[in-house]
Amino acid sequence: MYCKTHDVAVCLSCVPSHHRACSDVIPLDKAAENAKLSTTLTDFEDTLVAALQSLQEIIIAQNSALENLEGQKHTTKHTINDTRQRIIKKLDNLEKQILLELDTKQVVNPQKANF
What we know:
Blueprint: E1 2-3, E2 8-9, H1 14-18, E3 25-26, H2 28-108, H3 110-113
Antiparallel strand pairs: 1-2, 1-3
């Protein structure tokens, strides 16, 4: 037998002498079922806690990945902008050089330019 009041296993001879006032003396096998259920519930709670911790770690990792992505996006935009500025500068220099060459050839051969 099992006394729920005192939370102890008791023999049949102890029930009438020491636990007669206890109204919740039940068979030991019935108490064991509740213990198994309690253990299962505890295991389930542990599993849920572990799953929750894993989800929190995933959320932290996702947030970190998003921050890294934003940083990479900013760096890429900056690189593109710098490259564009260098291309424009190079094209401007080429344009000046070509115009200068054109002016130089026009001054050297002024008759050919007036046809």
